[in-house]
Write a structure and sequence with these properties.
The chain is built from 8 helices and 4 strands. It is α+β, with helices and mostly antiparallel strands. The chain has 2 domains: 75 residues, Glutaredoxin (3-Layer(aba) Sandwich); 108 residues, Up-down Bundle (Glutathione S-transferase Yfyf (Class Pi), Chain A, domain 2), CATH 1.20.1050.10. Helix 4 runs antiparallel to helix 5 and helix 5 crosses helix 7. The mean pLDDT is 96. The structure holds glutathione.
């Protein structure tokens, strides 16, 4: 049976959402990154980085949220339509998954921390405005890519949408306005309204 480690209030939300989309059986081990859970020596054997999410599927131990999602979608998601049919679609799936991690994740996480998570006295407004500026370019790229389209690849929701939307899900708690990016916003609302996403948020 598939085992996934990490509470839903962490990057484990990404594979949890995908597992809910897939409808496969899995065991959810709710390790909390905020305590001592990740220092457990048994867990360190699975992930020497001491981070979640971590996946175990048979002999396979896998870490990095995007790698886990790409593996799960490739291995279990073809019938559900979550994995693209063509090699070009696969290439675009890698592209968008790497893109969101390299161009968006860190500045958006900084906004989440300094607009929402950190205590007021530790928040730095300069970092907020700098990172809002940094995000304008990639947000514009995604907005334009979604003009006249419902999904990133082809005509249906795939793991590419999930991987990108699961990172952009931080926009709301980070208080990042999307009014200048109407196509991005429309797409994000559609992705986050999916029943599997809602279910993963409740785990
Ligand atoms: N690039 C990794 C990042 C994983 C990561 O940093 N996870 C956080 C929770 S969201 C964590 O485990 N933090 C524990 C720590 O940094 O000690 C991924 O996407 O899976």
């Amino acid at each position: 049976m598939i085992r996934i480690y990490g509470i839903t209030q962490s990057r484990a939300f990404r594979p949890l959402w995908l597992l809910e989309e897939l409808g496969v059986e899995y065991e959810h081990i709710k390790l909390d990154y905020r305590g001592d859970d990740l220092n457990d020596p048994g867990f360190r054997v699975l992930n020497p980085n001491g981070r979640v999410p971590t996946l175990v599927d048979g002999e396979l131990m896998l870490w990095e949220s995007m790698a886990i999602d790409l593996y799960l979608a490739r291995n279990y998601g073809a019938e559900e339509g979550l994995w693209p049919d063509e090699i070009a679609g696969e290439a675009l799936t890698w592209q968008w998954s790497f893109w969101v991690m390299t161009e968006v994740e860190r500045p958006l996480l900084t906004l989440l921390m300094h607009n929402r998570v950190l205590p007021e006295e530790k928040r730095d407004p300069a970092r907020v405005s700098r990172n809002l500026g940094v995000l304008q370019a990639p947000f514009g790229v995604l907005d334009r890519a979604l003009q006249g389209r419902d999904y990133l690849i082809g005509e249906r929701f795939t793991v590419a949408d999930l991987n990108v939307a699961a990172v952009f899900a931080w926009c709301k708690p980070a208080r990042v306005p999307l009014r200048d990016y109407p196509d991005l916003n429309r797409w994000l609302v559609r992705c986050l309204a999916r029943p599997a996403c809602k279910q993963a948020q409740r785990l």
